[in-house]
Automatic annotation (TrEMBL):
Subcellular location: Nucleus
PANTHER family documented for this protein: ZINC FINGER BED DOMAIN-CONTAINING PROTEIN 39, ZINC FINGER BED DOMAIN-CONTAINING PROTEIN 4
Organism: Brachionus calyciflorus
Bias-annotated ranges (Polar residues): 39-71
Protein name: Uncharacterized protein
InterPro entries documented for this protein: RNaseH-like_sf (IPR012337), ZnF_BED_domain_contain (IPR052035)
Length: 368
């Protein structure tokens, strides 16, 4: 297998991002303004060497020289400071390790040219920019532009983050069901040409209403816990959020697990008026195969999020795994066929647009 000499990851979506290292220093970068001075080092740039020593007192230049992958992330603190970090990753006695190379509090606008300059400055500080082979990015237009510019500057290859791509495929497929007007769901006609579309939208609307009830009422949350007494694991309901990867799948999976408990609670007098949100037998029957369609995206995303193993060699195999899972089966319900078709169409669009299956680096990693 071809092992790249060096890689860079952009954004919180990068394949092997070290969020633990990033968060460890977020408070340092989020200091109140009265603790900073205009143009001071703490405001414009934190010393990379100091941060490296703070992460690992025994870290030396030799560790940095071993670095064979770099990830970067940008985020805004609760004090509204924009921060960017660069983390190096290397193999030590067959064990993956991480090291903080640099942190910046961004005082400039978030332009691609500014992001590129910050990254290059840190790489040049350690004299490692000539080792870079690949750049892993999320799909933010500014980050993509910065990575394309870096490609020309240091002769490396840009790669889209697989986890983020899979999230976008599912998100864009499901978003069509989020635009349905509530009035359209009052009386769904099976003869309506939009039936499958409305049927799925109705399931999502019901599930979100149930989750909202239990997450916004302390009394309801207590009831949910009480009805699970004696269970090995007491579960809560999870709200799907657009920016949280595969959270719709996680929400529906949890609803299915707790359906019997929710049904019992809705039989109580004070909850009877919520019973209209309970999933019908037909909807429950549909939910399991619905989850089987979304499950492979979640599974591959989780696999791609590993920090302790190489992930680039798994990407093309992961894509093939998803394709196989989206193939039609003899006993597939018409609604599931529609969902699979929609997912497959979006899946193919992203594969072509992002050149995932023609990327020489990914091909070499998977089959070299």
């Amino acid at each position: 297998m071809l092992i790249p000499n060096f890689g860079i990851g952009f954004g919180k979506h990068s394949m092997c991002i070290s969020l633990e290292t990033i968060c460890r220093f977020s408070r340092t970068l989020s200091a109140p303004s009265d603790e900073r001075t205009e143009g001071s080092t703490s405001q414009s740039q934190i010393s990379s060497q100091n941060l490296v020593q703070e992460v690992e007192p025994s870290t030396s230049d030799s560790n940095i020289e071993q670095t064979d992958n770099v990830t970067t992330d940008s985020w805004t603190s609760c004090q509204n400071y924009s921060n960017i970090s660069l983390t190096g990753h290397y193999l030590d006695n067959f064990e993956f390790k991480s090291i903080a190379l640099g942190f910046n509090c961004m005082t400039e606008r978030h332009r691609s040219i500014d992001l590129k300059k910050i990254i290059l400055d840190i790489l040049n500080e350690y004299d490692i920019n000539d080792k870079i082979y690949g750049i892993v990015t999320d799909n933010n237009s500014t980050i993509i532009k910065a990575s394309k510019s870096l490609e020309l500057e240091i002769n490396c290859r840009s790669i889209r983050c697989m986890g983020h791509v899979l999230q976008l495929i599912v998100k864009n497929t499901i978003s069509q069901y989020n635009s349905v007007e509530p009035s359209d769901l009052d009386d769904i006609d099976p003869d309506d040409p939009r039936f499958s579309y409305l049927f799925m939208a109705n399931i999502l609307a019901k599930c979100r209403s149930i989750v909202s009830l239990f997450n916004h009422s302390s009394q309801s949350k207590i009831q949910l816990e009480n009805f699970q007494k004696g269970s090995k694991n007491v579960l809560t309901l999870i709200q799907d959020v657009q920016t949280r990867w595969h959270s719709t799948f996680i929400m529906l999976e949890r609803i299915l697990k707790l359906h019997t408990v929710i049904e019992k609670i809705f039989q109580l007098n004070e909850y009877r008026h919520f019973s209209t949100n309970l999933l019908t037998n037909n909807e429950l029957e549909f939910l399991s195969p619905f989850l089987k369609c979304l499950g492979p995206f979640n599974k591959i995303s989780e696999t791609m999020s590993g920090e302790n193993y190489v992930t680039s060699s798994m990407i093309l195999h992961g894509l093939k795994f998803i394709e196989l899972k989206l193939e039609h089966k003899k006993n597939d319900h018409e609604l599931i066929i529609d969902l699979k078709n929609s997912l497959r169409e979006t899946f193919r669009e992203y594969c072509v647009d992002y050149q995932l299956e023609t990327n020489n680096f990914l091909i070499a990693s998977a089959y070299g």
